[in-house]
Amino acid sequence: MVDVRNLKAKIDEKKSCLNGWCPNWGWRCWLALKRDSTTIVGLYGIGGVGKTTLANFVGNQLRQEKIFDEVGIATVSQDPDIIKVQGELAKSLGWALNEKDERERADRLRLMFSESKSSKILIILDDVWNELDLKTIGIPVGDGDNCWKILLTTRLPPVCYSMRCDPQIQLGFLKPEEGLDLLREHSGIDVADSKLIGVSEQVADECKGLPLAIKAVGSALKGKGFDEWNLALDKLQDAKLNTIEGIGKEDQDVYRCLKFSYDYLNDEDSRSCFLLCSLFPEDYEIDLDDLVGYAVGLRWYRAESIEKVRSLLSGTIKELKASSLLLDA
């Protein structure tokens, strides 16, 4: 006799992936990667729509369910540093990669993949902008006995074609009700508070179904009252009239919301820290000690010791992460 209640609970858990905002896309990735015939799955969509978050979530789920023994992840970026990609991939798989030369590192990775044929490995290649030569990285290609699969994320559908992804899954915008739920969750709104129901719906609409934008705006408005919400709505609507130079039309909405979240930071030190972090290369893993040195030199905090500066800076970084302005490496 099937335990219907237990089965329903498992189904509901799957449907609620990422707090309910990606049931269809999450399921599609999950099912595609389980198929024996699948080698590379392509996940594409505009910036801020949640590709990285979904890829990490699916990877963790598949590992927990023992579909894969290991999950390796590397960020490729617009101008890929192959040595960095190799290092991230090896580190995430728990492998030692001591070679300095790119080709030697690739040979070592191929050897380690060959020695791990008894393990099922999922490789997540995040933020791919152009066709990527997997052999250059050290990922085996054309080995019929391999037990690895790739989940690739990109903004550009042609990348999925050039990398021969099958299937190619487009990650779309959230439905209005999903976006509203996500906004209320991150802002801590009590759905019983009738004063904020209408204005929160309008604010969610201004975020255009983009999870990153919704999280940033919701975090900025956490604990705020009706007047602050109304002011926020006014600012978001006014911001639509201004085009951000150097930003493509498809990315304007998410940058507009991130700018709003930046303006709502508590103090000038937080804003300065964010701007400093933005000077580092894309996807750079910023060391806290480096930031401490800059903070002391720029005299951000009036603190009597470096340890005090470190403590205050750690609090600032937590605030920036909570505002979705910084992400964990």
Automatic annotation (TrEMBL):
UniProt keyword terms in alphabetical order: ATP-binding, Leucine-rich repeat, Nucleotide-binding, Plant defense, Repeat
GO MF annotation terms: ADP binding; ATP binding
UniProt cross-references to InterPro entries, sorted A to Z: AAA+_ATPase, Apaf_helical, NB-ARC, P-loop_NTPase, Plant_NBS-LRR, WH-like_DNA-bd_sf
One Pfam family this sequence matches: NB-ARC
SMART domains documented for this protein: AAA
Annotated signal peptide: none
Example of a GO biological process term: defense response
Domain AAA+ ATPase: 37-190
Protein known as: AAA+ ATPase domain-containing protein
Organism encoding this protein: Citrus unshiu
